[in-house]
Amino acid sequence: MELAEFNEKHNHKCSEERKYKAPKEPAVLAALEDFKDKKFGLMMHWGLSSQFDSFESWALPDQDRSWAWSNLDEYKDMSCSDFRKMYWDKKKDFNPTAMDPDKWAKEAKNAGFKYFLFTTKHHDGFCLWDTKYTDFKVTASDCPFHTNKNADICKALFDAFRKQDINVHAYFSKPDWHSEFYWIKDSRKGDYKTRMPNYSVFFNRKIWKKFVEYTANQMTEIVSNYGKIDCLWLDGGQVCPARGMNLGLSDIAKKLRAIQPSLMIVDRTVGGINENFLTPEQTVPDHVINAPWESCITLGRAFSYRKNDEFKDARQIIHLLCNIVAKGGNLALNIGPDINGNIPDEVYDILHSIGKWLDKNGFAIYATRPQAPHLDNKVVYTTKANEVFAIYLADKDEVLSGKLQLKYAKVANEVIFNNKKLAFTQSNDTILVDLAQVVDSANKDTDLAYVFTIK
After folding, report:
1. Which of 8, 20, 42, 239 yields a CA-CA distance of 20 to 30 A from 201?
2. Is the pLDDT of residue 66 over 70?
3. Residue 49 to residue 100: CA distance in whole angstroms
4. Out of 4-13, 144-153, 352-361, which region has the weakest mean confidence (pLDDT)?
């Protein structure tokens, strides 16, 4: 799928670069530079929704039924109210005994991921850590998984990924549709639910204050009790001061950074001082963004698990990664385990291919920065130290032939491919390389994209 087609299909909202405000804390600024070096993260959506073949927990509000129920034909005669009751009760069936934190972390390491972004809870409010502020959690006594050695899923996963030197980013939903302080009982609005609280925050400030306290307490738990958290990634941008729903996030941030001074916070789509990097979703910007940013893109069709899913192949992912990095961003690639804690073998195969390419060519990706002209035909550019990397995004089954044109404004001393110096000619800002020199040293691990180093 071409980039323009990909973006047109998804086109999710993202905060504007011109409104970006860099944090002031030196430790957070240093963390952002490290984040910009990482380039490639594993994102994982998991929870009760994984057993419904649905769009995460979006099937719960009546407001979103028209689209979120597209794969829920077996429930089509059920009201949203009855569906919610049945959904909440699925906690009693949640028992993902196939989950293997160490395997997941090792596979992530071998695939070249440098950080791990995991859903501590989605909008449905089901907590995958041992929170003390609700019983709607994986460690509750009526959840069969609570006796498993990995019952505190966040702890098990965060510990396993850190052992592989992979940073931890914690996804946290600001809206919580299960909370008694968000969707309250006996609301004047009746049983019809939207993404918003089902009461007026302005006229029910005591209830909203309880929700703010609940949210702050849970954020504090994660940052206090689960080791080094590099980023608190906040979803649900509709919960924001502009809509009258002020969580007092700046005050919360100060308290959290008193615990972990380098903590990055991402108040997605809200903008301002608490959105430390921008997060285009299922979209690759068509230009360089001069602020820290990360595209979150699914390997399959959706963020949560889907039966008989259709996955992007390794070539598509490498091309997405190269395109994103050339524009100054990171790629958070999302994978959704099934309800039992399995990841399909096909996914592992794709990750193995990605890992082989990055093991050989990661020098042109990690810790690089954008280099003009960024993208020229099928070549993207990155730079590091005194080197420029021109990455040719080869089509499937493409046979290299003819001359490749590379853009470079300075005088080039060497052009290298696979540790081999190539003969080239240079005129003004254009370098021509005869691709016949490349064919002999190309192989199956590099034919997803070819990296030329210009010194």
Report:
1. 20
2. yes
3. 19
4. 4-13
Token representation of residue 303: 């963020």
* Predicted model pTM: 0.95
Distance of CA 180 to the CA centre of its chain: 29
pLDDT at 5 over 80: no
Decide: 212 and 16 in contact? Cβ < 8 Å.
no
Q: Give the residue from 215, 223, 207, 290 showing the smallest Cα distance to 256.
A: 223
Starting from the edge strand earliest in sequence, which strands make up the sheet with 424-427, in order? 403-407, 430-434, 424-427
In this model, does residue 3 exceed pLDDT 50? no
Residue 409 token pair = 């404004």
- Tell me the pLDDT tens digit for each residue of 401-412: 899 999 999 999
Write the DSSP assignment of 228-288 as a string of letters.
---EEEEE-TTSSGGGT----HHHHHHHHHHH-TT-EEEETTT-BTTB-SB--BS---SS-
Contacts of 436 by beta carbon, 8 Å cutoff, 6+ apart: 400, 401
